[in-house]
Design goal:
The complex is a heterodimer of chains A (about 110) and B (about 110). With about 110 residues, chain A is mainly β. In chain A, the strands form 2 sheets. In chain A, strands 2, 4, 5, 9, 10 and 11 form a 6-stranded mixed β-sheet that branches. Chain B is an all-beta fold and about 110 residues long. Chain B is built from no helices and 11 strands. The chains are: A mainly beta (about 110), B mainly beta (about 110). At the A-B interface, strand 5 and strand 9 of A face strand 5 and strand 10 of B.
Chain lengths: ~110, ~110
């Protein structure tokens, strides 16, 4: 069974702090997506990483795909209360039975 | 462009009843996927429909079924509800397959008493 493990599960920080969340697997993915879900809403795509070693930046968010395409990280600089939410990663296994494999998410609370 | 809409937003049912949830995808999107989200299990894939055909299926019992209409709107049905079916049910549409970017609706919060 393919699994995507996200860590930490919960994170509570003060506004202005930096943080990194991780998404790890023993499986190789052809691509990996990061979503953010706010309370009462569905997840919204932040970024898709495709190439091993790829780094993508979205304002204060930096996403990295591992060289072996088995893991990914999300780094947030100077977190703001608006960054609060559940961060989910989803890997595309791209096998014969193509499916998105979802992590359980990291619940982030940024306190003012 | 209007986003994915789901109705109803909240639903309370009792054990043994059945329920039908509705999803309208983004205009032009032909793939509609359904997910169950719970705190302990996270997002779990139920099934995907494309052009009125079920194209992919997760590991859920036969009590969970779905269908898609010619206008790409989709419905999901759960029969003989169990307490463990209480969850947020999310619908997502995409242009191609369910491994492409998923555009999610706000979900239907189902509570089974």
């Amino acid at each position: 069974t393919q699994l995507l493990e996200q860590s930490p599960q919960f994170l509570s920080i003060q506004e202005g702090e930096n943080l990194t969340v991780y998404c790890n697997s023993s499986s190789v993915f052809s691509s990996l997506q990061w979503y953010r879900q706010e309370p009462g809403e569905g997840p919204v795509l932040l970024v898709t990483v495709v190439t091993g070693g790829e780094v993508k930046k979205l304002k204060r968010l930096t996403f990295q795909f591992g060289d072996a395409r088995k893991d990914s990280s999300l780094h947030i600089t100077a977190a703001q209360p608006g960054d609060t939410g559940l961060y989910l990663c989803a890997g595309n296994n791209a096998g014969n039975n193509r499916k998105l494999i979802w992590g359980l998410g990291t619940s982030l609370a940024v306190n003012p | 462009k209007a986003g994915v809409t789901q109705t109803p937003r909240y639903l309370i049912k009792t054990r043994g009843q059945q329920v039908t949830l509705s999803c309208s995808p983004i205009s032009g999107h032909r793939s509609v996927s359904w997910y169950q989200q719970t705190p302990g299990q996270g997002l779990q894939f139920l099934f995907e429909y494309f052009s009125e055909t079920q194209r992919n299926k997760g590991n859920f019992p036969g009590r969970f079924s779905g269908r898609q209409f010619s206008n790409s709107r989709s419905e999901m049905n759960v029969s003989t509800l169990e307490l463990g079916d209480s969850a947020l049910y999310l619908c997502a549409s995409s242009l191609g397959t369910h491994t492409d970017t998923q555009y999610f609706g706000p979900g239907t919060r189902l509570t089974v008493l």
